[in-house]
Amino acid sequence: MSGIRKLSGCVFYLEIFEFEGKLSDIFYYSYSILASGLSSVVIPGFWLYTRLTGQHRKNFRERLGFVPEIPIYGLSGSPRIWVHAASLGEVRVAGSIVKSLMKNRPDCHVTVSTMTEHGRDLAIRKFGKNVSVILAPFDSPATVNGALSRVRPHVLVFLETELWPSWLFEAKRKGVRICLLNGRISERSIKGYLKVRPFFKEVLNCFDLFSMISEKDAQRMIQMGARPERITVNGNAKYDTLVADVNVTAKQEMQGLLNISESNMVFVAGSTRTGEEEKILSAYKRVLKDFPDTILIIAPRHIVRAPSIGAMIEKSGLRYQLRTAIGEGKGGRTEKIVIMDTFGELFKVYSAGTAVFCGASLVPLGGQNPMEPAAWGKVVLYGPHMGDFLDAKRLLEAADASVPVVNGEDLGEKVAWLFADRKALDQYGDRARRVVLSNCHTAERHAGVIERLLEET
């Protein structure tokens, strides 16, 4: 009887396994059909857009999966690691993780993919000839398979919240080991994921390992359907990158470019979003009452908004300059307000600030990374909506190293107070810098996850 019971148990588990396998196939084929159908419409439309506007035209074939031979010249080496770093920030994170990986595994060949030309250019500058850099393929079975067949990775690495179903499904079917590093799931995004949890449970099942930033990120990943035994918590690798990028030369260059001296009071508002600039201008006018020579630098999250922000400033009775109108051969800064309408300079701009406000936090859009200005030893202010950076917010507030504000009026009052109390200003900045320094060396732990997969491969 016991033998029969054991046998029936085995049959039961086998049936569950077969059912889950069939369910996975259903999701795979359904999404593949949907993605293929959408790509047959979207890709030709995008191609036409590149021809008409000239934007994104360069290296378009790479987006279709035709990875050229030159960027992958060393792919005969082994093992091969493909790291996908979608944004400029993720390229920097990839830099610290890859650097840590190469210390222990110098035999690896690494390919880094990005979503944009700006990201691609930054990756080329950052990695030089040690790493192959390509544009990521569109997320459809045909384009992804083409790229995978050319790069032939042993391990595929995604960073932060990159979940591309076709890419994941196709890589898994080819036997590629997959991990998510520096993973985070925000308070805002988890609600959307949970609405389609059965689908994302299958997507997450493609991952062999997850290396998350915080315990809360790990719990949210489990809520979405990830298996707990595949998850570890290793901190935020962005902190390693920030410390490495802080240098006196970059600060001096930015101060020289914007004609800013150490004695100037500079109010920087970084990654601002629609609905915030009005509040920032109101706060700035409050600061001007006590400190009439204060310089304001506004860096909108989306630089296409620069003209509308400029019109808003002029309507308020103030004057401004665009960053693109300042520089070699163009003259220096002549106005007290500057709008940054360039890519990739925000981190350096923070170095020139006296007080820094992190945007997307006076409106419910999740905030901006407060550790970037903190790395420069700047006093950091932010609004009540910091859901995307709760781990950084907790670390700073636990050390009394940041200044939360409730609205635009409060922002103006607190900036004016900080400017009036230089001792408090410096103390907040020093504590913020120490928070960043004390949370470094996480990139090594994330890189260790790749090494673990390589050992199992």
Task: Give a brief rundown of this model.
The chain is of the alpha/beta class and 457 residues long. The chain has 19 helices and 14 strands.
Explain this structure:
This protein has 457 residues and is of the alpha/beta class. 52% of the residues lie in helices and 14% in strands. It folds into 2 domains: 20-236 and 441-456, 3-Layer(aba) Sandwich (Rossmann fold), CATH 3.40.50; 244-438, 3-Layer(aba) Sandwich (Rossmann fold). It has helices at 2-53, 60-63, 88-104, 117-127, 141-151, 165-173, 187-195, 197-204, 215-224, 238-245, 248-257, 277-290, 306-315, 346-351, 371-375, 390-398, 408-420, 422-438, 442-456, and strands at 80-84, 109-114, 132-135, 155-159, 177-183, 209-212, 231-233, 266-272, 295-300, 321-322, 337-339, 355-358, 379-382, 403-404. The strands form 2 sheets. Strands 3-2-1-4-5-6-7 form a 7-stranded parallel sheet, with helices on both faces. β4 (155-159), α6 (165-173) and β5 (177-183) form a beta-alpha-beta unit. The longest helix is centred in the N-terminal third of the chain and has 52 residues, at 2-53. It is globular, with a radius of gyration of 24 Å. It starts with a helix and ends with a helix.
| CATH-defined superfamily of the largest domain | 3-Deoxy-D-manno-octulosonic-acid transferase, N-terminal domain
Dominant shape? globular
CATH architectural designation of the largest domain: 3-Layer(aba) Sandwich
- Looking across the biggest beta sheet, what order are the strands in? 3-2-1-4-5-6-7
CATH top level assignment of the largest domain:
Alpha Beta
What integer is the average pLDDT?
88
Q: What name is given to the CATH topology of the largest domain? A: Rossmann fold
Main beta sheet: 7 strands, parallel
Low-confidence blocks of residues: 1-20
- How many E strands? 14
Distance between the termini: 41 Å
Helix content: 40-55%
Question: How many structural units, i.e. domains?
Answer: 2
Q: What Rg, in angstroms, do the CA atoms define? A: 24 Å
How many helical stretches?
A: 19
